[in-house]
Design brief:
The protein has 377 residues and is an alpha+beta fold. Helices cover 44% and strands 13% of the residues. The protein has helices at 4-12, 63-83, 131-148, 166-179, 189-197, 204-210, 251-262, 280-293, 299-303, 305-326, 338-370; strands spanning 20-27, 34-41, 47-54, 105-107, 111-117, 122-123, 217-219, 228-231, 237-240, 247-249. It is globular, with a radius of gyration of 21 Å. The N and C termini lie far apart (65 Å). Bound molecules: 2-acetamido-2-deoxy-1-O-phosphono-alpha-D-glucopyranose and magnesium ion (MG).
């Protein structure tokens, strides 16, 4: 059997990367895809790095559709930055063509791979350290919203149906509870009672969308704070990554997931729940950054910014709990009960956000008013 590195070198050779392969290492990024950082060298001694990624087919049943979406988004953003913003100074994500003329390589027995440029000089944060980082990350996701706002909705496919359909996520959890294939439901009464006690609010955003209050947009849908590359020297956000879930959605899914992943100082799988709290200065920086990045939010969106954080935390908690019940088949885990711990931190966060929600929304209203985003707070 070929060793792993030789295999990665062969996959890298499928892409139009200049120079010679030097090295590859696996990077631990995200709960879904397998990612490698590969280095190539040119004859003049210069080196460049690239990101090779295998798309997880268990999560993305149609990886070619994922690639079509990513192609549309990366090309459009590049066009818009050059022709509308007239700014060619920053780093953007680019796909490299593969043998056969597409932007992905189909490796027999080893799935679908793609290759991006590596964004140099940056780092990502699992836990936000300062309001400045929160502001920068939120501004980057806001700008992303603005950059993709003129892609026709029909150019983007729904690659994971019902991805942020919270009532559907609730049904999936209840089905897993009913089936309980690993006999894990016992001992989860507290968690399940908590979820059930929130049933009344889970359809709020979808109901508002159906009523025409919230517009459907092209959204990122996975705005975890570690999906923004931050310049290591200046702390400025450089680029949003992880475009696989770009789909038609609601801006509040994006804002809510930022709140979920940024406001608390605790890790996503923290076991000491007393560490899960809402840092108001971080929340405020998220609102300021998002509104600075994207100028297009309507009244209904502004009204639900604080609510969205709790909803996405609840939704993500239900997804982690469902996966725990089904045997950890969706999210990568590195230890026993990690998905259960992740679910518990999310539910704790929902409670903390609920306690502060009116204070959070009052801040949003004040800020929106001073910016003239709306007439009255
Ligand atoms: C997954 O790939 P990553 O870790 O950025 C998941 C998100 C969840 C997140 C929870 C395609 O994102 O929806 O919010 O884990 N992505 C997919 O940490 O399901
Ligand atoms: Mg992801």
């Amino acid at each position: 059997m070929k060793n792993h590195l030789t295999q990665i070198q062969e996959i890298a050779n499928e892409f139009a990367i200049p120079g010679n392969f030097i090295s590859a290492m696996e990077v631990d990024s995200g709960h879904i895809n397998s990612t490698y950082l590969v280095e190539f060298g040119s004859d003049d001694g210069s080196k460049s790095r690239y990101v090779l990624q295998r798309i997880n087919e268990a999560v993305f049943p149609d990886p070619r559709a994922v690639m079509r979406n990513v192609e549309v988004v990366t090309r459009h953003i590049n066009w818009k930055i050059l022709r509308v913003k007239r700014d060619s100074s920053g780093q953007t994500l680019n796909l490299f063509p593969a043998r056969g003329g597409r932007f992905h390589a189909e490796i027999e027995g080893d799935g679908i791979w793609r290759c991006y440029n590596f964004i140099e000089g940056c780092c990502t944060f699992d836990v936000v350290e300062s309001p400045r980082q929160a502001y920068e990350a939120a501004k980057a996701f806001g700008s992303f919203q603005d950059l993709v706002s003129d892609i026709p909705l029909e150019n983007i496919e729904e690659t994971i149906p019902d991805f942020h359909n919270t009532p559907q996520r609730y049904k999936n959890l209840m089905q897993a509870v009913a089936e309980d294939p690993l006999n894990r439901v016992k001992g989860l009464k507290k968690e399940l009672d908590f979820v059930r006690s929130n049933k009344a609010t889970i359809s709020r955003l979808i109901d508002l969308r159906n009523a025409g209050v919230l517009p459907e947009r092209i959204t990122h849908n996975d705005t975890k704070i570690n999906n923004v590359m931050i310049d290591s020297e200046t702390d400025e956000a450089v680029c949003v990554i992880d475009l696989d879930t770009v789909m038609p959605g609601l801006s509040l899914y994006d804002f809510g997931d930022m709140v979920r992943t940024a406001v608390s100082p605790a890790a996503e799988d923290e076991q000491d729940l007393s560490r899960v709290t809402v840092r108001m200065p971080i929340f405020e920086a998220l609102v300021e950054g998002y509104l600075d990045g994207c100028n297009c939010l309507c009244e209904g969106e502004i009204d639900n910014l604080a609510f969205s954080g709790g909803l996405i935390a609840l939704e993500t908690g239900m997804r982690f709990l469902t996966d725990h019940l089904l045997g950890d088949i969706y999210f990568k885990t590195s230890r026993k009960n990690q998905n259960l711990d992740r679910a518990r931190t999310q539910f704790q966060l929902v409670k903390e956000i609920e306690k502060r929600e009116s204070e959070m929304q009052a801040f949003v209203n004040r800020l929106a008013k001073t910016r003239g985003t709306r007439a009255a707070g």
